[in-house]
Amino acid sequence: MSNIEVKDDKGVRIIRFNRPDKRNALTLDMYRQLTEYLIEGEADNGIRAFLICGENHCFTSGNDIKDFLSNGELGATHPAVRFLFCLLELKKPMVAAVSGAAVGIGTTLLLHCDLVYADESAQFQLPFVNLALVPEAGASMLLPQLVGYQKAAELLLLGEPFDANTAKQLGMINGVIGQRELFEHALAVSLKLADKPASAVQLTKKLMKVNRNKLQHQMYLELEHFSSQLKSEEARERFQAFLGKSQ
């Protein structure tokens, strides 16, 4: 069984994290599949919107640390890097349904989504500094723009978890939905998007994302510092402690 499930429904490509035994932690192979499904969906005129979600009441607990650390340099061909820049290039709208853990990339990828819904169990966290790293996916630019510098500093520098109601108050998500209704609500919204004139939807999205080139530059800058920090003694100690706790 694949750790990434994909299903097309009336113009909506549903992409689901499916590694519940590891809280949907993302491996490099999962990143490869995610990118492939997004690129295929972009090229398919029958697909007009994406919906991303997680299996077993969990969005994703972030990177599979052991897998991530054992797989080479963070260059342009690295699966996680390709996925991040694929998010930046998406023309079609993406909706997210978040239940349970949304850690690291589980929160930063939401900043690239167009509509985000979560249930009461959702727990967001940006723990990069805690691991001696820096943010990725353009979060160091997108988050201050979205919530203001002071709040972004609190979320990124302290790296503490926050709940769905806080995310809603900050404008990071569109609504808090009951756990049983979450997926159906997000799917209904996705189907609404898929039913609208595709060119108008995509052009409107493009017009709203006016700082794309600046964001791309910021993502490259983050990647440079992330890669450097990943090799640091600080990060090595933090990851060893993390892996020791998780065993």
Could you describe the 3D structure shown?
- This is Enoyl-CoA hydratase.
- Its main location: other.
- It is found in: Peroxisome.
- Helices cover 48% and strands 15% of the residues.
- The protein is of the alpha/beta class and 247 residues long.
- It has one domain (4-179): 2-enoyl-CoA Hydratase, Chain A, domain 1 (Alpha-Beta Complex), CATH 3.90.226.
- Helix 1 (28-43) links the parallel strand 2 and strand 3.
In short:
Helices cover 48% and strands 15% of the residues. The chain is of the alpha/beta class and 247 residues long.
Strand residue percentage? 5-15%
CATH topology, by name, is 2-enoyl-CoA Hydratase, Chain A, domain 1
Which overall shape is indicated by the principal axes computed on the Cα atoms?
globular
CATH architecture annotation:
Alpha-Beta Complex
CATH class: Alpha Beta
Can you summarize the main beta sheet? 6 strands, mixed
Question: Taking strands numbered 1, 2, ... along the chain, how are they ordered across the largest sheet?
Answer: 1-2-3-4-6-9
Radius of gyration: 17 Å
What is the chains' assembly state?
single chain
Mean pLDDT level? 95
Question: Regions with pLDDT < 50 over 5+ consecutive residues?
Answer: none
Assign a percent range to the helix content. 40-55%
